[in-house]
Amino acid sequence: MDVRPRVAVIGAGLIGRSWAVVFAGGGCEVALHDASADAAAEAHVLVGQGLATLAEHGLVTDAKAAQGRVRICLKLDDALEGATLVQESGPETVETKREIFAELDRTALPDAILASSSSTIVASRFTQDLAGRERCLVAHPVNPPHLIPLVELVAAAWTAPQAVQKAKAIYEAVGQIPIVLQREIDGFILNRLQAALLSEAFRLVEDGYVTPQDLDKTLKDGLGLRWSFMGPFETIELNAPGGIPDYCARYGPSLARLSEAHADIYGAEKIAPVLAQWGTPPKPEEIANRMRWRNRRLAALKAHKRSQPAY
Ligand SMILES: NC(=O)c1ccc[n+]([C@@H]2O[C@H](COP(=O)([O-])OP(=O)(O)OC[C@H]3O[C@@H](n4cnc5c(N)ncnc54)[C@H](O)[C@@H]3O)[C@@H](O)[C@H]2O)c1
Predict the structure, then answer these.
(1) What is the pTM of this model?
(2) Is the per-residue pLDDT at 259 higher than 90?
(3) What is the SS3 assignment for the chain?
(4) For position 136, what pLDDT does the model report?
């Protein structure tokens, strides 16, 4: 079954126009609307450039045809006509989100999913009073979504699970990688991780332990290399012969001292629910195989980085 919807992107700024590239590149008909006619016109040009960049790298097959699927709509009603997914990408204030969502709920098709690109505001703060609040959620992208595929799907308590599942299937169909939060939390997941890292980065530089340039190298020439294709759990699983429990037993106490983490956060009892969700622990030979896979990918990445200009 083809789950690709007709999409209305509301707000054609940095994020909205990149969403238009994602959806048009993924085969959807896209209506792009902005309150400012100038922003909409400019976005059309930038969407073409975004699609051309993807085509250069073989990430879309026909950039011209994809651009032909994007129409600029000066009126909101026109944009919403026939749309079964609305990707709201307007300004980041609760008041604006409330106003736009009230209008979307009144005007969009009754079964359209209403998704907000909000990076910080949970849907329960701007959809509470809507008749169709069960079809509303946050679908938070990473800038620019046409090049970074993660989308955080964050439902309010009243969002229908089917709306989340339908949204997930749509983002997957256009090549994005959605994750589903189990419940709302400020900053969602990506920005909470980023905030933890940034606050430690600023602290280390402010307190004179390292220059900002050397701190950046620690990420781009250190941690970030593995993190571009493995998550932190996958990473530590390969950093001790007995996988995650072994890693936590060996390094947990010293890691806990480095952060404000509760001392037993890496303790056997504490990590048990994480391991239960993680699945069967890999056997030593599987860990060894995966280490070889990791090293091949790191070698390929190193070669790629060497082949590219630094800036
Ligand atoms: N910029 C980022 O890095 C980033 C990343 C992820 C998510 N987001 C989220 O995406 C959303 C958009 O951010 P952005 O960076 O594209 O902002 P932006 O300022 O570049 O674009 C917002 C656009 O919305 C338009 N607009 C204003 N009111 C409108 C209305 N009532 N109807 C239609 N259009 C309207 C503006 O004219 C503007 O073109 C925000 O919620 C933001 O938090 C941003």
Answers:
(1) 0.95
(2) no
(3) CCCCCCEEEECCCHHHHHHHHHHHHCCCCEEEECCCHHHHHHHHHHHHHHHHHHHHCCCCCCHHHHHHCEEEECCHHHHHCCCCEEEECCCCCHHHHHHHHHHHHHHCCCCCEEEECCCCCCHHHCCCCCCCHHHEEEEEECCCCCCCCEEEEEECCCCCHHHHHHHHHHHHHCCCEEEECCCCCCCCCHHHHHHHHHHHHHHHHHCCCCCHHHHHHHHHHHHHHHHCCCCHHHHHHCCCCCHHHHHHHHHHHHHHHHCCCCHHHHCHHHHHHHHHHHCCCCCHHHHHHHHHHHHHHHHHHHHHHHHCCCC
(4) 98
Pocket residue to mutate for ligand 1, from 9, 14, 86, 143, most atoms within 8 A of Cβ: 14
Closest residue to atom 20 of ligand 1, CA basis: 13
Convert the pLDDT of each residue in 2-59 to its tens digit: 778 899 999 999 999 999 999 999 999 999 999 999 999 999 999 999 999 999 999 9
pLDDT of residue 1: 59
Assess whether the C-beta atom of 145 lies below 6 angstroms from ligand 1: no
The pLDDT score that the predictor gives to residue 263 is 67
Query: Is 191 near ligand 1, meaning CB less than 6 Å away?
Result: no
Which ligand 1 atom sits nearest the alpha carbon of residue 43?
Answer: 39
Question: Whose C-alpha lies nearest to ligand 1, atom 18?
Answer: 13
Give the Å distance between the CA of 121 and the centre of ligand 1. 13
Q: Is 12 in the pocket of ligand 1 (CB under 6 A)?
A: yes
Work out the pLDDT band at 311, boundaries 50, 70, 90: confident
Q: Which of 77, 92, 114, 151 to mutate to test the pocket of ligand 1 (most atoms within 8 A of CB)?
A: 92
